[in-house]
Amino acid sequence: MADATRDYSESAVTLLRANLGYYGSSIPDDLLAYLKNLLTVASRNLARAGIQLVPGQLYDDQLQVMYAAWLYRKASEGSAMPLMLVQEIRDRQGEQALTADEEASA
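The chain above was modelled as a monomer; its predicted structure follows.
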């Protein structure tokens, strides 16, 4: 079960490590702390975009990892988000808006 005080799950950490090529390898504690920070930033940025993630839910963890991996690889260069990530964010915003509308009309 995910720790309610964190913005990410251990599954998300594992997925991010794999995404970045750190399969089962030992990484320095500073790098691991940085990756966890990226997951927190991703979660909070997505929340500002209206997307509430549930740590430990694979669907949510995957979006969070996609965002964090982009931050790791490209954001410091000023590179735009890849179209796949932008589309996933828009899809999630639409899903959550529809869910909110359905709940309001129920």
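The mean pLDDT is 90.
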